[in-house]
Amino acid sequence: MTALHGFENLALPDTILRAGDDAITGTATSVDIDPCTGDAFGDIPVASPADVDRIVDAAWHAFRSPAWRDINPLARERLMHRLADAMEADLPRLAALEALDTGKPVAIVEAVDLPAAIAWLRAYAGWPSKIAGRAGTLSATPGSYHVYSRREPIGVVAAITPWNFPLVLAMWKIAPALAAGCTVVLKPAPETPLSALRLAELAREVGFPAGVLSIVTGDGATGAALASHPRIAKVAFTGSTATGQAILAASVPDLKRITLELGGKSPSILCADADLATAIPQAAMGCFFNSGQVCYAGTRLYVHRSIYDQVLEGIAAVGASQKLGRSADRESQLGPLISARQHERVSGFVDRARAAGIEAMTASSALPRSGYYFPPTILRDVPPDAEIARDEVFGPVLATAPFDEIEEAVALANDSAFGLAAHVFTKDLSVAHRTAAALEAGTVFVNCILLADPAFPFGGVKMSGMGRENGSEVLDAYLEPKSIVMALA
After folding, report:
1. Most buried among 30, 36, 310, 417, by the most CB within 10 A?
2. What is the pTM of this model?
3. Bridge-partner residues for 187, per DSSP?
4. Is 295 an active-site residue?
5. pLDDT tens digit string along 84-102?
6. β-pairing, 443-446 with 421-425?
């Protein structure tokens, strides 16, 4: 294995040290690769079906153990805050692990990803003492009864997460699940296991009982074994639509609870009156941020014809201003794509668009000599039926087209199998509200982009998923209501 370029003093988590029933004992491994160089730097255990059985059984027993199930809500809250404290104290190491695995600039991980993950944990740490049922009366049954309900943790949760925001998206699942009193088995993407493994080490160090938060590393077969395991009560998944469909199918025999946050092809609409000083850089980074590897990135751009050329020139300038570089370089603004496979996929989309006669503008200077870098790219006058306008690319590729009337823009935006997010830029509040109501998306951003917060729910419609993460609504996914009806006479 090669050196850790730029992170030579970084201590990797001990991937075998998870002692006890949740240790991975299989002999198969996968190679961890630095996307900035294409070099391998470590071997990660691939859990066998027997490993998955053992880890899930440990989580199942931990769920029923008094050490977790019977602790009072404030004790659970304190444990979650201790883990948040430990993450803050360990932030430089966690950020370096995440940057090494993903290739994203470490300065961005420190400023965006880690603070967000910690914020989610702290936000849901406040919930254990506030989860309650309700008392009521029967409305159509004669007699005297005392009626109340309880909200009980659902059981063992399988959290399966992608590689673009490993800790953030893991915490979107872990934090509400722990707050509800569930136990969690987290399977990170095979490309990005390091920060998840370190998180499990920190959880043990601050006092979480064994089995409450476990990590299982591996490939797609590992994820399938986890999602179909009979002792998994719920699967929370973020990733591709195809994998989400497979997880949904696997849930049928046991009628597992499922939350799916899937793909997107989110539109952005720039009206003629948009504040271009704000709208142009936001529309650009709404697609190019994290090298386009964002599920709800604004990858379709519809611009009023009167400002179309001006907007595209501005977006190209923003793309060209972004420095592409290694994750350890604190001046880097964009990193590489996650893998050679993803680079080939994104390149294929652009090559086919060019072959179909679509003009492509590359908005970047020279790329680093090694690694999976892809420049911000703008495709001009893209027909609505073009592949690049309909399929999720997951790279810094923006498909653009002009419009004349807002109704036309809304129709183009809604002409998609996906419905994760949408963006509208206008100074007219009437247009903003009417357009937001007409757009088929789980979240509509007006004069802003890519916001997420534990205070409001997030998820998609159509092929972008089912269920919601975040907000108080997410707790319903980890709690089962139970009604108690007691005769008083």
Report:
1. 36
2. 0.95
3. 160
4. yes
5. 999 999 999 999 999 999 9
6. parallel
